[in-house]
Each structure stands twice: as structure tokens, then as C-alpha cells.
OmpA-like domain-containing protein
Amino acid sequence: MLKSTFLVFVFCFAGVSIFSQNKENSPIIVEPIKGKINTNFQEFAPTLTPDAKTLYFYSKRSNTSYTDIFKSNLEKDGQWSFPEEVDELNSEFDDQSPFISRDGKTLLLSSNRDGAVEVELPTGKVGISRDIYISQWQGKEWSNPQALPSSINTEEIEENPHLLGDSLLFTRYPFGQPDKAKIYISKRKGNSWAKPTPLPDPINDSNSTIAAAWNDEGTILFFASNRAGGFGGYDLYMIKHDSGKFSDLENLGEGINSEADEAYIVYQQVKKTFVFCRRVENRSFDIYTASIPKKENVIEEMLVEKKRISLDNIYFERASAKLKNESTPPLDSIVDYLHENKSVRMKIIGHTDVTGTFEDNMVLSKDRAKSVKDYLISKGVDAKRLETDGKGPTEPLINKSDEESSRKNRRTEFVLIEN
């Protein structure tokens, strides 16, 4: 257990207000992931399903020359089960760097399987590059991975994919030269991908920079680098992002970083947990977690007791259905409840204040309820479990138009639906 003002800042800035008071004394626990995951082999590139109950990573678990993708399930005692190979994703060659999208419907990986781009080496021999492949969740298993187009996959190595919306991040370096690794970004336009461009300085510099990952809002970018000034070899860093501009580069600090190598950090926002990799002495990389002990979930308790809850801290842009980032903590509590209670269905009801026209408020309340629904879906909640409605100004808690009354009237209701 450690105290880290900076890590507290990371958890809060990543879109989650975890602490209500005494932030500097809040404990953050950094430890090897629990269960049957870490071995004498390398465990690398962790990614979690939206409910944080299934972990994917890659490893070489036998005497073969190639790596495979594995998965493990979270058991009731908090331990992770013995990993199993994911047959539909693996080939006879290297399969690496799995990444699962926020909604759980898309998986990306890196592989040098048959069909990957060939490259002529200086020795005259032909090598096989690692390319990025995409797979879709089909309800019970993943679809056969398909290579991304030549705008992404080249004779160089492409690995460590990360997708947020239509923005794809990945690592690229010349064949056999990982010391020249840089992070690239490409935007999807329909069914095509724009030509990738390297991220700007100070993210990419003269050193090796790998394995970038966004937080859920795209306001923080995490990555690993072996630049000078760190604690060891590769360290983990974060940098703020706003309107296409990056600022305030920071090392994640002691506790996360050590004298060894750290890489490939991902943030599971709903469970408020970082998962990352650390090179352990006398063996290869293992998977670690950094988390804050779970606190009392008032929202979950209210839903269990009252079967409904009304929240006035779901914030939107003025006269708009666009959610503000400040809304993520209560919404993630709703997401967590729905992931933990798979059979529950829910109605989302939007309410406005009594100012403005009746017609506009009715439309706005329905649009805001739909916006909340879309957020829950983006975190892996099945759309079939959710209904929406908008009451506009018809059911005010306080029939007044002053600002305090209006704030209380502008609320979002969550009601459990009896099956």
C-alpha cells in the first residue's frame, strides 16, 4: 500500500471523483494481479471486458516458439482463474497485444500470421511483419480476425492497438528495431482509415515510446517510454489532452514505476483500477494492478432498497443533451450495478426545470435520457436492458423557477423494470 498525491490526481482526473476528502491520505494498492495469471513466462498487454470480469493478455506458456492470447475469469473470491487459450483468436504464429473496446464488441490484436506483410531483410531473407487485426464479438465467441488495410499495416512492426471511438493508436517500429518505436494515430472514416501520423513531441521523442492508451473520455493519454529522468528502463507516463492539444507530461511516479521496466497501462474506469505490466527480477513481465479499495456504493444501495433513484448530478451542456465529464462518476456507479446484476432491466427518465417552452423541454428531456442510455451502452450494457422516457417539466420536485429549484428539477431518474 502506498500514499501518492500524484496517483490520487490521476484517478480523479481520469474522469472519476474517487475521493470526497483527505485525498493525500487515500490508500492506493499496487500489487501483482491476484490468482493464477503470473508465471515464469511473460504476461503482457492486459485488457479487460467492460464488466471487468474477464482478462485477456498474451503469453508464451509452452515450449513453442510463438505467443498466444489467453483469457482468465474473475472468481467470486477475487482471484483470477487459470488462463485458457482463446482458440478463435490464435494462429500458428505470434498473436499479441489484445485490446477490447469500451463496449466490448470489438477486439484488436497484433499478429505475424499467414497473410501478414512480408519484408525483405538486409540479409536478403524474408521476414514477416506483425500487423494489426480486428475481430467482432458474436455473442459467444470472437469472429475470425481480419487484417486492417495497408494504410495501417506496413513492412514495419505494428502492435499495441488501442481504439477509442474512431481513433486508433498503435506502436510502430522498423523490423527488428524496437528501440525506434513510436506511437501513431489514425482516424477511421467510414470503412477506411486515414494515413497514420506519429503523435507529437513530447510524447514521441528520440527514445522508444510504446503502448499508448486513452482514458474513457480521451482527456488523458497513458504510454510507456525509456526516456531519461525516469525510475528505471521503461516508465509509465501520462499527458493531458484537450481539443487535439497535449500538455503537462508527467511520470506516474514511484509505486507505479520502479527500477525495472513498466509498460502497457490501461485504466478500467468503472472499477477504478489500473492494470499494467512490470518486469520482475530474474523473470519476464508480470501483470500488476493499482487500485483504490472499493467504497460504499450509495447508488447501488438505493436501487436495491427503493428500486429507483433520482440523480441531479448528471450534468449536460446548457440546453443540450451532451453529457459533461463530471457526470461519469454517478453514471459509472449505474454501469457497475448493471454489470453486477445481469438480469436487471432499467428505465431512464429525463426531467427538466420549469423554465422555457413546454415543447422544447419535452424534446430535451427525451434526448437527455437517450444520451444517458448511449453512455451506458458504450460501457458494455446491453441496449435491450434499457428503456428511456422524458417527462420534461411535468413532474417538478419544486414548482419554482429560481436557480436552486431548477437545479433540483433538472434530474435523471433510474427505475428498475420488473420482469
In short: Residues 1-6, 13-24 have pLDDT under 50 and may be disordered.
